[in-house]
Amino acid sequence: MFQMFKRVKTLVGSELNAMLDKAEDPVKMLDQFMREMEADIRDAEAAVAKQIANEKMLQRKYEEADKMAEKRQQQAVKALEAGNDDLARRALEDKKTHSSQADTLRESYERAKTDAGSLRSKLDEMKSEYNQMKLKKDSLKARAESAKTRTKMNRAMSSIGGDESRKGFDRMEEKVLQYEAEAETSDDMRSSSRSLDDELDALDQNNDIDDELAALKKQLGKE
């Protein structure tokens, strides 16, 4: 019976931290510990219920034997009053048997009652320890989750601005500068091309005006 308390005592003791140190995932291990404790408590409750049932059974048998002894005592008196010594003797003999049984059953009942009380006390102790461990588990789980979150955040922050990232940004900056230079060169070439086209177009426009001027002079007879 006391074996089922072993795991609980171990968890309450200093070995819990050592177990957590070896665990890959403390949160999962804590949940596993709680499930084991819950199983222990269920086993203890079943044992207590069985002991209580045994206690009540012995109490009933003890009370029945005691009542039968009292009944045989009263019957012996009646037999004597009726003048039947033989019947009275047999009633007293049976009374002695039931009295002996009652004494034995009373001792067994009292022992079972003491054991049941002790088991109830241990069960209450287990439940109290379980509740304490549950609070501790919730606290440890919260701390573990917080620590994991901080670790992830620190790793993410440490990767920002690292050598690879910095080199990558430098390469991209060079490419952007190259694109901008190519765009400026393209704009210059386009501007140069437009200037030449504009001069040629202007020349054509001047030729048209000269032709128009000559035609006008001819009409006026000034050629």
From TrEMBL:
The lineage of its organism: Bacteria, Bacillati, Bacillota, Bacilli, Bacillales. InterPro entries: PspA_VIPP1. Belongs to the PspA/Vipp/IM30 family. PANTHER family: MEMBRANE-ASSOCIATED PROTEIN VIPP1, CHLOROPLASTIC, PHAGE SHOCK PROTEIN A. It comes from the Bacteria. It comes from Bacillus salacetis. This is PspA/IM30 family protein. Residues 104-114, 135-148, 163-177, 187-197 have a biased composition (Basic and acidic residues). Residues 198-208 have a biased composition (Acidic residues). Residues 91-208 are annotated as: Disordered.
